Amino acid sequence: MSATLLVLAVFLACAVEAVEALTVVLATGLIRGWPSPLKGVGVALAVLAAIVAVFGPAIGHIPLNALRLVIGTLLLVFGLQWLRKAILRASGHKAMHDETAIYERQVSAARAAGRSGRAFVTDWYAFALAFKAVLLEGLEVAFIVVTFGANQGHIALACLGAALAIIAVTVVGVLLKEPLARVPENAMKFAVGILLTSFGTFWAGEGAGADWPGADRALLVLIPAFLLVSLLFVILLRRRSPRAAAPDPAPNPTEVAP
């Protein structure tokens, strides 16, 4: 896989997670002040950096075929989960992910919550909310960075893709000071689902002993093939009368949803 494709795949996947984390952090910071949420973000980023630093090199010691089989299987699980929800949203069988509505619910919750301090944090609610949002969304980022980077032997390039995504989303969010509702998040999730499923199939096949024609160039066939099949599912599902799709619930910072 080329360096450009690696960085692009990691960038898109991490950008989706960054948008969701930013929605929670913005709502908390703008309503309750920035010192405590920023401390929560900083601690979460430190924990995530430690996870990548520890598990990135450790994964490199696993035999290559076993590594590809395990990573490919895990990516298939993640990718198919993302792709299933993206297909249901695109076909009208599931409500679109609405960052504005989620932001407004987070704002209401932040206004209603009490205020208390612990240790070096003056507003524990704001700290904990920002910490959980960044950590749990970031765990998927860390997983993507470690798996993509370790499998291709380019942890640094995978980290670059993740860093670019986080910086881009953060800069835009800070400048706008509002949820990134105009970002085509659902289209991005559809694309990420295609990429994760394609890479997962490719690496799991390699790990199981398959010899892909054209080596890495087989991805140039797998990606369009999964895209075509997914679009066909969207068309078929649209022909069925979808039940009224309820809006996505506000994300619980203790959960991670694709």
TrEMBL record:
Signal peptide start and end residues: none
Sequence intervals crossing the membrane: 6-28, 40-60, 66-83, 124-149, 155-176, 188-205, 217-237
Record keywords, A-Z: Membrane, Transmembrane, Transmembrane helix
Listed name of the protein: Putative membrane protein
